[in-house]
């Protein structure tokens, strides 16, 4: 049994359902939450103050990989913030680690996505930070559209169709892009990845799908995972 340590905003056993839907048998998640009420800087600063203590506590567990999710927490300090966080983690533990934004960048590189559109559940100001982060990693964002929701409880209740509708509007308008990125692991869009890829012929990168892919590769777990897009066809390759 391999164990992934997961530090994620507002994490609960319920919100792990999409990750476990993707993960192969024999892999478990040991989770710790970052408490974020609304997507505002004061909340992110509170998370930042608590973060190191949460890492130190979690890595006392036997883990094979450590993953940090929460795109907005990771991006609020600007491009390259994921590298700073990973450098800090490396001072604490030798457990291999990554962040969801690091995973997204690696996923885009693996799929050859240089120009993307972003379909997001977030408000415009938070989307702007994500765009700056991506473009700081030389991924051009042709367009970004968000639904404007500023907390994860509301986003969790959104039906997957909201993701499909927003993604479709972007891909219909921007047909020259290489693919699509959909942030937020509380937006339950893993079930529509294959539908979008089939109908539009473009690879899709989403939060949960990307971090699971990154963690599996980090643990050298070669596996065939069907039903969640082209990215997971590349596990172990």
What does this structure look like?
By secondary structure, the protein is α/β, with parallel strands linked by helices. It folds into two domains: 2-101 and 209-234, 3-Layer(aba) Sandwich (Rossmann fold); 103-205, Rossmann fold (3-Layer(aba) Sandwich). It has ten helices and eight strands. It has a four-stranded parallel beta sheet with strand order 2-1-3-4, sandwiched between helices. Strand 7 (179-182), helix 9 and strand 8 form a beta-alpha-beta unit. Helix 5 (100-111) packs across helix 10. The longest helix has 18 residues, at 41-58. The mean pLDDT is 95.
CATH topology-level fold name of the largest domain: Rossmann fold
**Beta-strand segment tally:** 8
Which CATH top level class of the largest domain fits? Answer: Alpha Beta
The number of distinct structural domains comes to 2
Range of helix content: 40-55%
What string gives the helices and strands in order?
Answer: EHEHEHHEHEHEHHEHEH
Helix count from the secondary structure assignment: 10
Spell out the blueprint of helices and strands.
Elements (H helix, E strand, L loop, with lengths): L1 E8 L7 H6 L4 E8 L6 H18 L6 E4 L2 H5 L5 H12 L4 E3 H12 L3 E6 L3 H13 L3 E7 L5 H5 L3 H14 L5 E4 L10 H8 L3 E3 H12 L19
Parallel strand pairs: 1-2, 1-3, 3-4, 5-6, 5-7, 7-8
Brief summary of the model shown:
This protein has 237 residues and is an alpha/beta fold.
Main features:
single chain, 237 residues, alpha/beta, Rossmann fold, 2 domains, four-stranded parallel sheet, 10 helices, 44% helix, globular
